[in-house]
Amino acid sequence: MSPTATLDVAPFHAATATVDGVPLAAADEDLTAEQLRGRASVELLRQAAIHAGLLPADDPVPARGVVSEAAATAIEALLDRELVRPEADEATCQRYHAANPKRFAVGERVRVRHVLFAVTPGVDIDALRKRAEDCLLDLRARRRGEADRFGEAAARLSNCPSGQDGGDLGWLTAADCAPEFASEVLGQTEIGVLPRLVRSRFGFHVVEVLERAPGAVPPYKDVRAAVRQMLERHAYATALRQYVAVLAGQARLEGLDLDAASSPLVQ
Fold this sequence. Notes:
- By secondary structure, this protein is an alpha+beta fold.
- The chain contains seven helices and eight strands, in the order ββαααβααβαβββαβ.
- The model is unreliable at about 1-10 and about 260-265 (pLDDT under 50).
């Protein structure tokens, strides 16, 4: 398994999860925690649309997570009404670019190897994290002149086919790996075994950076639109999470935890 594959995370007891009494999964479904949270968020928004008068009260309960066409339209209308779509001003964009130039570097590459502790359905996440942390501590404690224990650890412990090659992933660009993996290994200066686990959609990675090839950082004028789009997308996602958290704080949730918030939505 490589950092570009698809992976589920540990399942909850999906069949018992409800939002204000509305079940989120059929009895024969085995959803991951992420899938369950996604369904709960949609159901909270669907019910909010009903309460706002944007959707009939007899709108059918989603079947296996699929909402009606009317519900999808009503949810969009609800979000348009309740959330302010932010606009990043020029000064904010320039400051962000100046503080994070490497985020927009073109052609940056990094040669890495890793030990992957894959998160699979039914796995004990805490136990898996502990195994990954123990591996990280062991490899970080390697002394100068010692044999290559990283390659041995990858061959013995990694859930990635690269373990057969000592965990070597070769040269990677941002396009070659999952965004969350790329954000931890690109745009940095560290060489050697990273002092932290890298968490991705695939699990926990112990990562060693072998070499770095810096990319060219384009001037602000060339990436202005990309900077603005990224900042506005992040701001909207934050506002949406806050809104869903407020709805969760007002609802009766069973079988899951959305970190419900009781404070009003911060625009």
